[in-house]
Structures are given as structure tokens and as C-alpha cells.
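Work Package 3 (structural annotation) set out to generate three-dimensional models for the target panel prioritized at the project kickoff. During this period the team completed the workflow that converts sequence records into C-alpha cells, so that structures can be stored uniformly alongside our sequence database. As a representative example, we reproduce one entry of 115 residues exactly as it appears in the project archive.
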Amino acid sequence: MKHFKWLLIGLVVACLVTVPLVGCVGVSQSEFEALQAECEALQAENASLKGQLEEVRSRVGDLDTRLPWVELELHQAGLKIQSLESHHESLTDFVMDMWLELHPIPPIPPPPQSP
């Protein structure tokens, strides 16, 4: 009787484990083909994205090689701007001095005296 009880428990457990597994195994041919087509489409998209990534990496590499030259040009442009600003300042001072020489400012008359 003791062995029969264990045999019955083992049979119930085996049935409980087998029923869900059998239900999960059934995939129709059309579902399989749809999943396979989706997988192929995703693989094609992945290959396309990898190609785009390599193109972007190549462009980034080109930009990295140009960066020092651009930074140098920027520095030189900044120096030229400073030079031009200094020159502009000195020209402005010169023009103001010339204008003042040609058009002297008359002295301000004293305020009238009140009686």
C-alpha cells in the first residue's frame, strides 16, 4: 500500500508537469513562418544599421582629423580679431583727437549773476 501511494503521487506529478509542456509545444506552421520572416527582416535591419554605424564612425574619424586644424584656425582668427580691435581703438582715438583739433570745444560761459 505504501508503494502504491508513492506511485500514485508520482503519476499525478508527472501528469501535472506534462500537461503544461504539451500545451507550450504546439506552434502552428504559419506562426513559425511569420516569426521566421520577422527574424529575417530584423536581421536585414540590423545589417543596415551596422552599415550606417560604420559610416558614422568613418565621418567622426574624418572630423577628428580635421579638429586640430579648425582649432588652429579659430585661434588665429581670435588673434586677428584682437589685433583689429586694438587697431580700431587707436583709430577711434586718432579721429577724436583730429576732430577736437579741428573743432575745439568753446569754453562754457559762467552762469549769469542775479541781482
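The chain has a mean pLDDT of 86.
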